[in-house]
Design brief:
Elements (H helix, E strand, L loop, with lengths): L3 H14 L2 E8 L4 E8 L5 H14 L8 E5 L10 H6 L4 E5 L5 E9 L3 E10 L8 E10 L5 E4 L4
Parallel strand pairs: 2-3
Antiparallel strand pairs: 1-2, 4-5, 4-8, 5-6, 6-7
Length: 154
């Protein structure tokens, strides 16, 4: 069976050299291989094709048949690697906590330890009639969230 490590080793250096990053490699028991790539400005389809060809030419279909898909993560897909967080600094994201609470706000920083989301919302202070804008910075550790994804606003 083809392994995740085998696919990662085949493409990791080329992807990094070309200025992109590997988001995920998934190898299903049926030998369906899904490779997700991303970059600061996205990933052109031509690049996905070149990585697909690199993988296909490096594996022997005679010894093991496989199905291969190389693409970028779709819009609204949860983040999986730190580079995705860094790419989206300044953009609106939605964080889902393990308890199911959703927090939407601007991703203001991301580091190896975690990330910070700035939430702006209208809150009615006690004893006042009008709502006031309240800005709250929410620090998160990567292990303390269920999912994080970019929100696209039109």
């Amino acid at each position: 069976m083809i392994s995740k490590a085998q696919i990662t080793n085949l493409i990791a250096e080329k992807v990094e050299t070309d200025g992109y990053f590997l988001v995920d490699v998934d190898v299903k028991p049926s030998n369906r291989i899904v490779v997700l790539l991303d970059g600061e400005k996205g990933v052109p389809i031509e690049y996905c094709v070149s990585i697909s060809r690199l993988i296909e030419h490096s594996l022997d279909r005679e010894s093991e048949d496989f199905e291969l898909e190389v693409s970028s993560p779709g819009i609204g897909q949860p983040f999986k690697v730190l580079q995705q967080y860094k790419k989206c600094i300044g953009r609106t994201v939605e964080v889902v906590t393990p308890t199911g609470v959703k927090i939407a706000g601007e991703l203001i920083s991301a580091a190896a330890e975690g990330f910070v989301v700035r939430e702006s919302k209208m809150v009615k202070p006690e004893g006042k009639k009008k709502k006031e804008l309240q800005v709250i910075d929410h620090p998160f550790n990567f292990g303390d969230v269920k999912s994080v994804k970019e929100i696209i606003k039109f």
